[in-house]
Amino acid sequence: MLTGKKGLILGVANDKSIAWGVAQACHREGAELGFSYLGEALERRVRPLAESVDASLLAPLDVADDAQIDAFFDRVKQQWGTLDFVVHSIAFANKEALKAPFRMTTRDDFHLALDISAYSLIAVAQRAAPLMNAGGSIVTMSYLGSVRAVPNYNVMGVAKAALEASVRYLASDLGGDNIRVNAVSAGPIRTLAASAVGDFRHLMAKSARGAMLKRNVTQLEVGNMTAFLLSDLASGISGEVHYVDAGFHVGAGDPGENPA
Ligand code: NAD
């Protein structure tokens, strides 16, 4: 599906990361991949993973820092020249903000979550787009907390709502350049970022019980959908949020807790 395409995978922290499921699917489908890492500690984890899928680019990227985003894309331009796709799989919120009642969200917590988890997609898209000469595809990762008040998801739900709105505006903005922008809304998966969400084990159990398929999804299932959206097979799809949640969001919820 992706033979002959070059793309960036932003947001691998370790082999549990959703971005790693995406990378495995994209590698299997024939893409040439480049990776980012946040800080030296994570470089030690990401480098062997990147090497295992023959990555041709690996560079630091902290999306809180415009100079680093510029340097990252300068490097992409120098090394690759052009680009076919970008996977944005990055989010961050203060852990305390995901435990305290939502009404206690501070201005700083709000800024941080929205900056790293939503604005970063815009910052990445504006630098990636000029390198996507022959059209391209951008995919980001969202969650149901954008459209429903999921317990403990709090300010991250607000950030995901902003992220999904940004997908629509970017899709509108870049559509004339034949660049597609989509989000994948994944069901809960145990990762480093997920561990910041209070009572995540309970959320996973509830999601499995309420899902059409009576289970949770895997990183690779999210990766497979993402690889499809990055491919030419999805050439008519843009501005959408695609759920990979074993059917949870179309159901009535957790039958264990809502017997009606
Ligand atoms: P993860 O911890 O493996 O990945 C999060 C990534 O964000 C990490 O690689 C981290 O280094 C990166 N990151 C954080 N701050 C950054 C910064 N300032 N600059 C650059 N990178 C930064 O966890 P994950 O669950 O794979 O998260 C990936 C995406 O999937 C996130 O957007 C998350 O909200 C979303 N998501 C996760 C779930 C889930 O249940 N795990 C469900 C739906 C959506």
Describe this structure in words.
This protein is an alpha/beta fold. Helices cover 41% and strands 15% of the residues. The protein is built from 7 helices and 7 strands, in the order E-H-E-H-E-H-E-H-E-H-E-H-H-E. Strand 2, helix 2 and strand 3 form a beta-alpha-beta unit. Helix 1 crosses helix 7. The chain starts with 5 loop residues before the first strand and ends in a 16-residue tail after the last strand. The mean pLDDT is 96.
Bound molecules: nicotinamide-adenine-dinucleotide
Kindly state the number of beta strands. 7
Mean pLDDT: 96
Helix content: 40-55%
Lateral arrangement of strands in the main beta sheet: 3-2-1-4-5-6-7
Q: Please outline the major beta sheet.
A: 7 strands, parallel
CA-based gyration radius: 18 Å
Q: Any low-confidence stretches, pLDDT <50, length ≥5? A: none
Strand content: 5-15%
Number of helices: 7
